[in-house]
Amino acid sequence: MIPVTTFADKKVALFGLGGSGLATAHALVAGGADVIVWDDSEERVSDAQAAGLTAADLSDEDWSEFAALVLAPGVPLTHPKPHWTVDLARDAGIEVIGDIELFCRERRKLCPDAPFIAITGTNGKSTTTALIAHLLKSLGCDAQMGGNIGTPILALEPPQAERFYVIECSSYQIDLAPSLDASIGLHMNLSPDHIDRHGTFEHYASIKERLVAGAKVAIVGVDDGPSSEIADRLELARKPVVRISGERELPEGIYVHVSDLYEAHDGAQDLRGSLSGIDSLRGDHNGQNAAAAYAVLLALGLKSEDILSAMQSFPGLPHRMQLVAKSGRILFVNDSKATNADAAARALASFDHIYWIAGGVAKAGGIEQLDEYFHKIAKAFLIGEAAPTFKKTLKGKVKSTTSKTLAKAVKDAMKEAEEDGAGEIAILLSPACASFDQFPNFEKRGEAFCQAVEGLDLAQKSPEVA
After folding, report:
1. Which residues of the chain carry a pLDDT beneath 70?
2. For residue 65, what are the domain limits?
């Protein structure tokens, strides 16, 4: 735990008692703050009280006594409308902040030299965060990984000079961290997402940009227009910027082209190594992830050959292009994290002959933008609420069937793949949808896919499902 001493002897209101909220409350108490917590869930309030926290309905409190409102990232700050605690805080003239901001203040107070790598982007940030942490640990560094991935940031170990913090930051967390000041800020990409929480794409993009704008060194993916514009603005502001790409050659920066990683300086491209054979880094999108991680470690002063060697052992993340089984020429790939079309595009681009399992709760725009990958899809097996809409989109372009459930889709796809005379075949769960019609989250959906694969009579299984 990182005790938050910057609010010692001050009264703090905290709303939102999920995992990060509880961790934040305990960190504030450990640092000497007087913390009053609350949540809309009675069960969460009871659990907090059982854990020794002081809970009280914040609508009945005297807000003039509070120094700050600490808000959990899942609680609306601005859209669709501010949470009632935010209105009360603003009426009282106190700041509204989150756990990332508390960490930044504590780091500046205790050990400003502790390396802090902050990662954001619409897609790929979790894999890249895990890859950076893996590389640092493999090379003998003390790497603390957390934030929007796994461990809440304030549940990590306290800052020290040689302790590296590898922190995934969602747009919600950045919005609650006005003084975010990473040693290295990494922005991966941008596509429309979370508009319900930020109002417009432009506002969403501006929040993401804050992370790299406040960093000492900015590393920016330039495979989409809005992100490329961020890099240009930072350069005009004379910020140190490293551009990265997983799709195209760059005159200056780090990029991956057909599995080969290059460093480009003054128009000269130097081949540094290959990602070929690393199943966990397959596809152009993982090329960008690898380029990003490589750029971060290079900026930290680590050697190129050591970085590339450590990449070979990266296991990947569950539910993100996860190879869960292989039966002869048939691969079973769990990409349940692909909750929008842009994320699904990355998986579809990575294979040449696909039995595609898609559907759930569709995002704005559906799957129309995936048209360029339709020629790779031998057949689509549609599930959930979006199945009728997706079937209309695919009509005349891709063979499809409505399997309705994930378990049936796996069986249907396996039956047809076994009769297919093609070479390598990917049975790919990459839904391009949220999961909430049939599953509580994408993790449970991915687990259900793995269980369905495990139930098949396969000639060969990978360790994940054996």
Report:
1. 192-193, 459-466
2. 5-97
